[in-house]
Amino acid sequence: MNAPTAPAVRYEPHGYAPDGTPVQRWHLDSGTGTTAAVLTYGGILQHLTVPATDGTRASVVLGLPTAEAYAAARGPYLGALVGRYANRLAHGRFPLDGADHTVPANDRGHALHGGPDGFDRRVWRATPVPDPDAAAVRLTLLSPDGDMGFPGTLDVAVTYRLAADHTLTLDYEARTDRPTVVNLTHHAYFDLTAGRHGLAGHTLRVVGAHYLPVDAGAIPVGPPAPVEATPFDLREPTPLGPRLAPEAVAAEPQLAAAGGYDHTWLLDTGPGPDGLRPAAALTALDGSRAMEVWTTEPAVQVYTGNQLDASLTGSDGRPLTRHRAVCLETQHLPDSPNHPEYPTTVLRPGQEFRSRTAYRFPHLGAG
């Protein structure tokens, strides 16, 4: 690798949103060989370039070449910031303080990722963040009262920070002027082999002994179930190829319904001194790259790109096919407002929502 330089931030025009609003692409350079590109449209992480052990540099997230391509690609949430409520709300309804609220259904009769016009389809405002040890940009968005049916004006900020030790950190903040519900996450699709092998070229570890079984609409049913002696036991690094083989998926009703993993794991460990707990570890089988996910959130949704159907072509010129990459979405539990037994996602005036997720690359000595 080249000699380290100071972290750097710059931006450039990058097309237009469907309403004609200009979109910017912000480049973050750690100064040590890791770079990222973030769009103001959807807060999308378009590229995350990470060196391999042999120094080869390639993006480890799926991306599309233009803002217009993202706007046309309804559904996959490629690399986007997701809100106001990540994951699903059953039938698009939830109670809050004795009142019922409705979010437009956009997934099998349920509301997914904030409804059909969620935060992934908004143009965020971006400002650079001075930091001598990292390249950072702060994205802000004002979601008005009644937006997609959610009560309260929500003031949201997400800071992308790419440090000299190669760690990418996302810090989420939100405040409201009325009681509301908030569940924010990031929807990057990770492929550490940079398109060479897809998920068959990876092992995955998830730090959770329980997961949430779901019905045909991906809504949680019953209490958390133990992963012991099931395909959901990923407590040790597990090759994904055999788990996602057609015969293996067909043999497990929970996997068959989704076409692979699209489930929430409850994280086992408590937060460390920095507030973060381990969530997952993804490793290329050839040892070229490894990634750890750490978070302040209580759960992680593992989604293995089951709905990617090759209709989209990525920035690398390759079609985006099923099981090409995995999303590791740190968050609260799906449909929490309809499950009082789950950790609350209610945010009230005077409170501040804060969440942090860090992506570390231990093959580079990060973290």
Folded structure, characterized:
Belongs to the aldose epimerase family. It catalyses: alpha-D-glucose = beta-D-glucose. Its EC number is 5.1.3.3. It comes from Streptomyces albidoflavus. Pathway: Carbohydrate metabolism; hexose metabolism. The model has no long low-confidence stretch (mean pLDDT 96). It contains four helices and 27 strands. The two termini are 19 Å apart. It has a single domain (8-364), classed as Beta-galactosidase, Chain A, domain 5. It is mainly beta and 367 residues long. β22 and β23 form a beta hairpin. The strands form seven sheets. Strands 11-12-13-14-27-23-22-17-20 form a nine-stranded antiparallel beta sheet. Strands 1-2-3-4-5 form a five-stranded antiparallel beta sheet, with no helix packed on it. A five-stranded antiparallel beta sheet has the order 19-18-21-24-25, with no helix packed on it. It is globular and about 60 Å long. It has helices spanning 67-72, 240-243, 246-251, 253-258, and strands at 8-16, 22-29, 35-39, 45-51, 57-59, 81-82, 88-89, 93-96, 99-102, 111-112, 125-128, 134-143, 154-163, 168-176, 180-181, 185-186, 202-206, 210-211, 225-226, 238-239, 262-266, 277-284, 290-295, 299-303, 327-331, 346-347, 353-360.
